Amino acid sequence: MTEAADSIDFVQLLDQAGRRVEHQDFAYAGTDADIAARLRDMILARRIDSEATALQRKGELGLWPPMLGQEAAQIGSARASRMPDELIPSYREHGVAWCAGIDPIDLLSTFRGTSMACWPSRPKNFHLYSFVIGSQTLHAVGMAMGMQRDGLVGNEDPDANGAAVVYFGDGATSQGDVNEAFIFAASYAAPVVFFCQNNQYAISEPIALQSRIPLYRRAAGFGFPGVRVDGNDVLAVEAVTAWALDHARAGKGPVLVEAYTYRMGAHTTSDDPTKYRKAEEEAEWRAKDPIERVTTYLLNAGAIDQAWLDRVAVESEALAERLRAACVELPEPKLEDSWHQVYANTPDLLENQRTEYLAYQAAFEVN
């Protein structure tokens, strides 16, 4: 149910066979060493994802939303950002979280139920995972408008400018929140990059049933640019996102980036994609694996060798072992702490409720 291969028109700088290709409007500014760093990011992000999926299957996590196949879209876009950019994820942006410096153990705590999203390693510009489909796009526009009013947009010094990047999937584009966010962003020329990872399915509903036109073309109806990029090409994703961020930071308004990719795993670990996808379709997309094409390019260019891959494999295994060990050691939450997780300054009413609860709990302990 995805679009025919010959109808896809997107920005691509590294093809399926791992060959560099030219584009008239976009170019990758980094070196082969930078590309090798992106490959490392993707390999480790995939390992985090696969270990978390395995932990859920073992009963150690209540749920996990896999990102398998979307590594290039997430790593490329995240590495195009910098402070003071704001990163606003949905619930699948594990690769973006990795690039932001978040300890993957913190990610596990939410899906184990030991923490909502109070992650000690979370930087101030990476916002909480959003589980309400599409709602984060409105939040992002509000943050972007705040950046305007704080003087962080359109300055002569480019380093003083910032923008918001908000992540969502193709299914979210059918939500009213996303369309309202487009309207407000366009009306106020808000410095926001709407980063849509079109992974072809909104749970079980294919994109062909959601939209009769490519998603990036919707931006024109709201009065701002839209670009479709090969979401399995980390070079193209980084180049397009860097351009979109520069556009927004300069005060020129929002941009919609559609990263055309594929969710190779399940929507979440409660989903069975074999019920609605054909094996032939999955095989076609596995041949476009974002990690394989970058590995092929770097090996052919002599930028990495098998020893480099072996070192990353050792690092990956050590990371997996740490995840497995730390997951089961995550501390259980205490109910009495929840009163202090609502407001920055807990009001007297809630403090009184907490005091009453502690007295009630103590009565059971005495008896």
Which key phrases capture this entry?
single chain; 367 residues; alpha/beta; Rossmann fold; 2 domains; 5-stranded parallel beta sheet; two-stranded antiparallel ribbon; 13 helices; 7 strands
The number of domains is 2
How far from one another are the termini?
63 Å
CATH class of the largest domain: Alpha Beta
Proportion of beta-strand residues: 5-15%
Q: What helical percentage do the residues reach?
A: 40-55%
Topology-level CATH name of the largest domain: Rossmann fold
What is the CA-based Rg, rounded? 22 Å
Mean pLDDT: 94
**Strand order across the largest sheet:** 1-2-3-7-6
* Class computed from helices, strands and strand pairing: alpha/beta
Biggest β-sheet description? 5 strands, parallel
Provide the succession of SSEs.
HHEHHHEHEEEHHEHEHHHH
Report the total helices: 13
Short description:
It is built from 13 helices and 7 strands. It has 367 residues and is of the alpha/beta class. The strands form 2 sheets. The chain has a 5-stranded parallel sheet, sandwiched between helices.
Question: Your description of this structure?
Answer:
By secondary structure, this protein is an alpha/beta fold. The chain folds into 2 domains: 5-333, Rossmann fold (3-Layer(aba) Sandwich), CATH 3.40.50.970; 338-367. It is 44% helix and 8% strand. The chain is built from 13 helices and 7 strands. The chain has helices spanning 32-57, 71-79, 94-99, 104-112, 135-149, 176-187, 207-210, 218-222, 234-249, 279-286, 290-301, 306-327, 348-366, and strands spanning 86-88, 164-169, 192-198, 201-202, 205-206, 226-230, 255-260.
